[in-house]
Design a protein that fits this description.
Biased composition (Basic residues): 125-134, 159-168
Strand content: under 5%
Subcellular location: Cell membrane; Membrane
Helix content: 55-70%
Keywords: Cell inner membrane, Cell membrane, Membrane, Protein transport, Translocation, Transmembrane, Transmembrane helix, Transport
Family: Belongs to the TatB family.
Order of helices and strands: HHHHHHH
GO molecular function, one term: protein transmembrane transporter activity
Distance between the termini: 86 Å
Length: 168
């Protein structure tokens, strides 16, 4: 690029002062500064666009590598499952009974498939009894920690904590 030192800049300033004149020099300097600012913003925008394009290419390459890895894992899992399925069904392809597999069939009379019980939805998510927890806290602790023990309206709370007027 162009090597502009202090001495060269001073020489350009003196020539501009002589050629343009002292009256028009501030306006020309502002215009040149604005044009240089626009040029710098344009160059920065182009650089940013190029960087985005490069990042997009890298992301696409990463996406394709992740997709191939996922396909490889899926195929290995499928082959493993097919091998396990072949082993469970027997070497000659004849299916084993539940007793041969070691599964309990006693639950079938209760409507349970293969002895496995499906848990009820209430057993999966037990409800937390927050009222019981709240009631277990002693009253002295609630008053010391300033826990509200009863509901009070905003107006009543303001009236409760309003300073008492003396003599009125």
């Amino acid at each position: 690029m162009i090597d502009l030192g202090i001495s060269k800049m001073a020489l350009i300033g003196v020539v501009a002062l002589i050629v343009i004149g002292p009256e028009k020099l501030p306006r020309v300097a502002r215009t040149v500064g604005a044009l240089l600012g626009k040029a710098q913003r344009y160059v920065a925008d182009v650089k940013a666009e190029v960087n985005r394009a490069i990042d997009l290419e890298e992301l696409q390459k990463m996406k394709s590598s992740v997709e191939t890895a996922a396909r490889d894992v899926e195929s290995s899992v499928r082959t493993g499952l097919s091998e396990v399925d072949d082993q469970l069904n027997g070497r000659d392809g004849a299916a084993l009974s539940d007793d041969d597999r070691g599964l309990d069939t006693a639950g079938a009379e209760y409507g349970l498939a293969s002895g496995w019980a499906t848990p009820s939805p209430s057993a999966l998510k037990p409800k937390k009894n927050w009222r019981l927890k709240r009631g277990a806290t002693p009253q002295w602790y609630k008053s010391k920690a300033r826990v509200r023990t009863h509901v009070q309206s905003g107006a009543a709370r303001v009236a409760r904590f309003r300073p008492k007027s003396h003599g009125r």
